[in-house]
Amino acid sequence: MQIIRKIFTASLFTVCLFRLNATQAPDDSLRFEVLLTPSMVDEIKPSGRFINAVGVTSGQLLLLSTRDQFYILGWGGIEALGKKLAGNIGSFAYTPDSLLMTIRNNELCVFDSIGNLSRLYTLPGTDMGISPGKYAMYIFDRNGEEAKQALYVIAPGGKYSKLFEVPKPIYSVVELDKMILFTNGNTVFQYDPESTEVKALASLPEDKTIRSLTADPSNGRIYFSTDNMVFSIQNTEKTVITDKIGGKLMFFGGLIVFNPENKLLIRIVGLNEAITSKTGKPATTPLITQPEPALVNSNIIALVNDKLSDGVIINIINRSEVNFDLSVDAMIELSQKNVSSEIILAMKAAMKRESAKTE
To answer: Are 129 and 143 in contact (CB under 8 A)?
Structure first.
């Protein structure tokens, strides 16, 4: 199994507040963009913890949600969208024609003309999940309360039917070509709607649970995650993307990984080329990262506030361009902001290296 080990570089902590556009990636080199950090979340004081869901609006901004409030992530930061909602939002997804469907308790809802959730269907279970397809929407059992967990499809025109049942909760569903991929326990399965055949594509040890699943439609590469790891599979070859973070996955202009518990959302671009390079197959571009602005004191304070370890922060400093303020007043501020002496020493050493470059 090939492993892509990521050292979090400065690019991870240059917060990229963006209009998400899948057609504007400048190249295929590997790079990491942090789109949401704990400090950003704490600043807006959300109404509660974000749920394990993420979407892309028609304006190509990211949509997140707590149990009673939607939020938009885009240029300028993250902010609440509309008013607080009655009920208990468990999941949401956009339909192929950009209608936002929301599961609230045991109801499938849409927004009415005045911004309230209006019920479309009463669902067979509570806190079900929802995923979009090319022409249909998928609803699935994920709470484990029933002996059998089912996958349902809502076809155009509102036809609502059960596709199949499985013994464990279904945490994620995605279409790829004419197949339906879904997770069940420690395994990723493929379901053929025409033949009704089900086959396993990838599995993990029995003590692991696969929480999310997505795919890159341009090359057929599948990505899946546990609570703290992300994998990919293509042509039966499994690759570990990272063992540092897991969570909700979505593919749009790159692999988006959203971890509500850690209040962290990142986008990884150029993964397919990086993976094929590591596995010895032809790669279209070298495995490189984009140049980033120099680190300053405020960046280091932010990393400390985000609870990164001293070792990770020092690694970032050693691999980055820096422009630190090492005056007495600045040193006092760093100490007051809980920046450790080891990190401050690394900052001083990095500035000496920068000075040597200009001599």
So the answer is: no
Tokens standing for 304? 């400390």
Angle at 153 between CA 126 and CA 57, to 5 degrees: 80
| Cβ neighbours around 121 below 10 Å, total | 16
- Sign, Cα dihedral of 321, 325, 331, 336: negative
Separation of alpha carbons 345 and 299, rounded Å: 16
145: buried, middle or exposed (CB in 10 Å: 19+, 13-18, 0-12)? exposed
Identify whether the C-beta of residue 222 lies closer than 8 Å to the C-beta of residue 210: no
Residues 326/328/334/336 CA torsion (nearest 10 deg): 180
Question: pTM here?
Answer: 0.72
Residue ranges of E strands in 192-327: 198-203, 212-216, 221-225, 230-234, 237-242, 248-251, 255-259, 264-269
Side chain identity, residue 350? A
Angle between helical axes of 328-336 and 297-305 (0-180°, round to 10): 10
Tokens matching residue 255: 């692999």
- CB of 131 within 8 A of CB of 144? no
Nearest-angstrom CA–CA distance, 195 and 150? 18
Which domains are present in the chain? 2-278 (2.130.10.10), 297-358 (no CATH)
**Consecutive 10-residue averages of pLDDT for the chain (359 residues):** 32 37 51 83 91 91 95 81 90 92 94 85 91 94 84 84 92 94 95 92 92 93 94 87 90 92 89 70 34 78 82 82 87 86 91 81
- Tokens in use for 330? 């600045």
